[in-house]
Amino acid sequence: MIHPEIIVRVTDIAVVAESIKQFTFERVDGGSMPVFAPGAHIVVSMDDQGKLRRNPYSLMSSPSDSTSYQISVLRVVESRGGSAFMHEHVDVGDTMTISHPIDLFPLHATAKRHVLIAGGIGITPFLPMMEVLNESGQVFELHYSMRSRRRGAFLSELERRYGSRVSAEVDDEGGRLDTRKLLIDQPLGTHIYVCAPLPMIDLVFGVARELGWAEENLHREVFLAPPAGTPFYTNLAKSGTTVYVAEHQSLLESIEAAGIDVPYLCRGGACGQCETTVIDFDGQLMHHDIFLTDDENVSGTKIMPCVSRFVGASLTVEL
Amino acid sequence: MAIKSRPVYAGFNVDITAQQHVLALEGQGADALLEKLAGGHPMLERAEILYVATGSDHDAALRALGAANYWLAPTAEALRDRLSEILAHATMCTRLYVAGTEGFIGSIVQLAADFGIANASIIKEFRGSQQRRVQCVHCKGFNDNVTISPFQCVHCDLHLFVRDHFSVRLNAFQGVCINAETPDIIPPSVEMYR
Amino acid sequence: MAMIFHDETYRDDFSFHNSPESIRRYPFPFHEDSYMYAINMENHLPGKPGSSYEHPIDVDEHYVSEMRDRAIVLNEDPKRCQALPHMMAAQWDTLELLMTNKARSYPDLFTLERNGDLWHWINQPLGIDDTFVFGDQSTLPYEPMEYITRQAQGDFCIVDQRNDTLWMDAGMVTCQADWSLDFDIGMNFMEWHAPVPMAHELGIFDRALKFLMNVQQGRPVRRLNWTMTVNPRLDTSPENYHKWGPDKTTVTAQNIGSKLHLRCELQSFWRLPRSNALLFPIRQYLISLNDIATIPKWACRMHRVLTTIPDSIAEYKGFSRNRQLALDFLAPFDDGRELTLGGEPE
């Protein structure tokens, strides 16, 4: 087993905002949850009518609380099934399997100041971050963009706890994050962290770069949902087998379903861990990740099976 | 062969996106800027140039660039003090440049680190003497302007060779005893770093 | 079986010695007849009972004496233990990891009672019984990393992960193979490996860095590294090279069996939970050529390895001066037979 897993029981489910449910997990064996660093996520395995789904969710509970973990899940309308499964099929008392914490979005230890920028459900990793920053007396501010207050999970709690360090930009009240104004006079040593849909990350990073910010100070967390697409077959050269990738399944999931372990961390096209060599193909690789460079995409020698797909006659990868 | 721990001095490429440019120049390091901006450059309107001559004479040429601010520092120490004041009020939209000897560049990198500026984000160009600043790994004393190897540590008198290993934090190469295994044999010194 | 700790020295009269059981559990690093740099990482899973891999953090018969030698080094040179200010969370992570592992693996020797943040630690072999508040450094006699690594064999580095690389930002380094924490602290992965010959060109470090940055919590990994040392000396630091370097000239055909030691490093890599830093214990095991010669397979294999190793690696590992003497000593054990793969005695 590449990924050590923890068996948990769902001990609480709460609706924390419109379309957002919060799940609390405790270990079935009664032990403590591993301590985690703020920004970490877990991968939740779901048995969806015999189909294995694995989705990453940021941990949002207190890092100092080892009795339970909490995540929040936004019901995505165009969901392939992951968020719909969590919303509709998971009940209090259910047993689920989660991974150990994985931190691909850590706080920068030498930063002088932290500017946290959340879009919608992207608020979750910032909850433990703010707790740790607050406790250690570090300087931070949160800018939280949301469609409406009804969808702004945890906003009032954060405002109560952190006061003027929290500002909300609410779409339907005409609020909008003025990125340029925010970034133009941040003092040296400031780091920005963005967890939001990709277009918002691109916007913030784009403005930062236009203003001359150093790349070293820009950090982002993004989990791309594997897009649906036309079903296709993939030959696995080393394993000597062929897998079928259904419309609402990722290539990674179909390989796992065949009993083949592939290393992964983010399952969202960002970290590069599941990078796989393409041996041969006749058709078109549909790259949906943000890890591979444009040159690598054009070369047709690599694919990220967690989010990318294929259209055409045949595809053979090295696994 | 490149020394992996030694900083890479990629040369002066202007970061046109920066809202403010702060340039620290030492001696012949001024040429790095003058050669690049011979025909003038819009960045100068937003540039603050600090220069310490250390024997070179670029004052007039630098002044003639017409930067938003220009200051001829009497000593490197004074330059660093002024730079600290500037950085204390600078924003993330600032780009720092440094050109001169390795020791000078290292001192600016260290100073900038205190303000949270990542080493990799500083634009650097190496100009001037190749002489090395060397820390004796045995007594921890620093030897400035080393041009030969082996040399005798001014603090503990051990004969040291200069290992190709550079510490940004200490701004120094590592000096290691050359005759530990052969106490009676000290190879002749060779001029290596002019 | 209760562990009996040796009373022995790693300097002056060098009374260090291995018991026969200690020889058999030695993590012999040569798994085949030649040696070349490799990342050679494997999961740090429990090994056979009695082996050096049985427990994640190994404690052996040399524990008490090694800790005494560490105290001597720190007394002479406190800079062997340093941590940059942003590493405090990682220091507590390290303390927790070492205490919980030792207490779990060796309940007869170490006890940890946790009552919320109030921790009670008993280290029976060293006669330590302390109560402290986890997270409050004023309740310990040293900073947390120094406190616990004065009670743990081997060197320890804590590396921070940021900007797509690793940074050597804290460590306890008193028994190192010729590298200086005081010089290297604050360096990134490529910088601190700068003096290693050949491996950069082979792309070893690019791959190793990528691998290490993906080490995950709950899934430590390990590898073996090695050098050769004259006399069973733990402190082969560059700081004291002018003191131990002359030892290399004292090796003769008559004394090489007891003088020349293989020094194997069992390096493990752990993702730390609070800080997201990596803990990098470098546990060294010394064994004399005489002791190696008690295991025919090892003596035979070592002869083959030392025969084929490139000069630059022999130089870097510090035995080019005594290589021929070592080959002469080992040659009688190499009868040309085929050896099994792996480092097991046979």
Which stretches of chain C of 5+ consecutive residues score pLDDT under 50?
A: none
- Count the strands of chain C? 10
Strand content of chain C: 15-25%
SSE arrangement of chain C, N to C = HEHEHEEEHEEHHHEHHEEHHHH
What overall form of chain B do the CA principal axes indicate? elongated
* Annotated CATH architecture of the largest domain in chain B: 3-Layer(aba) Sandwich
Please estimate the helix content of chain B. Answer: 10-25%
Mean pLDDT of chain C: 93
Q: Figure out the total of helices of chain C.
A: 13
Biggest sheet of chain B: strands, sense, closure? 5 strands, parallel
Q: What is the N-to-C succession of helices and strands of chain B?
A: EHEHEHEHEEEEEEEE
Oligomer status: heterotrimer
Radius of gyration from the alpha-carbon trace of chain C, in angstroms: 20 Å
Span between termini of chain C = 24 Å
Shape verdict of chain C: globular
Structural class of chain C: alpha+beta
- Average the pLDDT over all residues of chain B and give the rounded result: 92
Task: Explain what the structure shows.
The complex is a heterotrimer of chains A (319), B (194) and C (346). Chain A is α/β, with parallel strands linked by helices and 319 residues long. Chain A has 3 domains: 5-99, Beta Barrel (Elongation Factor Tu (Ef-tu), domain 3); 113-221, 3-Layer(aba) Sandwich (Rossmann fold), CATH 3.40.50.80; 232-317, Ubiquitin-like (UB roll) (Roll). In chain A, 18% of the residues lie in helices and 34% in strands. Chain A has helices at residues 82-89, 126-135, 155-162, 179-184, 198-210, 251-257, 294-299; strands at 5-17, 20-27, 41-48, 51-58, 69-74, 95-99, 113-119, 139-146, 166-170, 190-195, 218-221, 232-236, 241-245, 276-286, 302-303, 309-317. In chain A, the strands form 3 sheets. In chain A, strands 4-3-6-1-2-5 form a 6-stranded antiparallel beta sheet, with helices on both faces. In chain A, strands 9-8-7-10-11 form a 5-stranded parallel beta sheet, with helices on both faces. A 5-stranded mixed beta sheet of chain A has the order 13-12-16-14-15. Chain A starts with a strand and ends with a strand. Chain B has 194 residues and is α/β, with parallel strands linked by helices. Chain B folds into 2 domains: 20-126, 3-Layer(aba) Sandwich (Rossmann fold), CATH 3.40.50; 132-191. Helices cover 21% and strands 31% of the residues of chain B. Chain B has a 5-stranded parallel beta sheet with strand order 3-2-1-4-5, with helices on both faces. In chain B, helix 2 links the parallel strand 2 (47-52) and strand 3 (69-73). The two termini of chain B are 18 Å apart. The relative contact order of chain B is 0.16. Chain C has 346 residues and is an alpha+beta fold. Chain C has one domain (20-105, 144-333). Chain C is built from 13 helices and 10 strands. Chain C has helices at residues 20-24, 63-76, 88-105, 144-149, 181-184, 189-192, 204-213, 241-244, 256-259, 289-292, 296-308, 311-316, 323-330, and strands at residues 42-43, 81-83, 110-115, 118-123, 128-133, 155-162, 165-172, 221-230, 260-271, 278-288. A 7-stranded antiparallel beta sheet of chain C has the order 1-8-9-10-6-7-2. Chain C has a 3-stranded antiparallel beta sheet with strand order 3-4-5, with helices on one face. The B-C interface holds B 3-6, 118, 120, 135, 137-138, 140, 158, 163-170, 174, 176-177, 180-183 and C 79, 163, 180, 182-187, 190-195, 200, 238-246, 248-249, 321.
